[in-house]
Amino acid sequence: MPFGKYKGKYLIDLPEFYLVWYRNKGFPKNKLGEMMHLVYEIQLNGLEDLVRRLKV
What we know:
This protein is an all-alpha fold. 55% of the residues lie in helices and 0% in strands. It has one domain.
């Protein structure tokens, strides 16, 4: 994450409530927004462990 409270964190490690808030407000209209939306969908479907194994 390039800014804010979670600066320096992997997107997959963002808390679910944070991504839900962005989902309700609207993701940014750029590449970061696309990636955040993808992470939201991954977490929504319970697949974040698959991504976490890849970042090792």
